[in-house]
Amino acid sequence: MFQMPIVDLLKEGEKLSATGKRVSVLWQAPESLVFVARGREYRSEFHINPSDEMMYMIKGEMNLHYRTADGKEEIAVLKEGAVIYTPAGIPHSPRFPPDAYLLVQERARQKGEIDRFQWFCQKCDHPLHEESFTVADYNADPVSKAYRNFFESEEFRTCKACGTVMPAPEST
Predict the structure, then answer these.
(1) CA 153 to CA 24: how far, in whole Å?
(2) What would the pLDDT profile of 109-142 be if each residue is shown by its tens digit?
């Protein structure tokens, strides 16, 4: 028999803080993926998700950086208790502190779908690097993997247009 999960979202976020983990997957089903995320103090990439996303700010405040169709960066502010819808394919970067928690609901990935992560030069906005992953299990934390690949390479972090090097954070 299927058990319908009941989750205390604030307690789930507090568990993430206590363990140092970034993501707690609440459930993954063929049509639904739901997880609680803790903020990353160094987040700078734009995620391109093949599915729509709904984000609910459990605790704290988030600046959701996103890129318009013409590539311009905009920011939507999501206050505690608010929700936002992000359509598939929109490059977005949820930026919030590690003591804040976010609930994310999206469709589980279909066979062959790819998640992309893009970085841009902080000085001239030229594209720096892109990481791509096939995400079969969100417990594998693809965001952390993308960050490790990017920040461990000075070549990836160096702008080909202006020469600026994006600094690596102390820990990813």
Answers:
(1) 28
(2) 888 899 999 999 999 999 999 999 887 777 777 7
For a pLDDT cut of 90, what percent of the chain falls above it?
A: 73
Q: What is the pLDDT of residues 50-95, one digit of tens each?
A: 999 999 999 999 999 999 999 999 999 999 999 999 999 999 999 9
Assess contact for 116 and 132: CB atoms under 8 A: yes
| Contact (Cβ atoms closer than 8 angstroms) between residue 38 and residue 13 | yes
In CATH terms, 9-157 corresponds, of 2.10.109.10, 3.30.200.20, 3.40.50.11540, 2.60.120.10, to 2.60.120.10
d(CA 44, CA 147): 9
Query: Residue 25 is which amino acid?
Result: V
- φ, ψ dihedrals at 92, nearest 5°: -140, 155
- Asked if 48 and 86 touch (Cβ cutoff 8 Å), the reply is no
pLDDT at 101 over 90: yes
Token duo for residue 45 = 């990439």
> For residue 34, what are its two tokens?
């739901």
DSSP 64-112: EEEE-TTS-EEEEEE-TT-EEEE-TT--EEEE--TT-EEEEEEPPPPTT
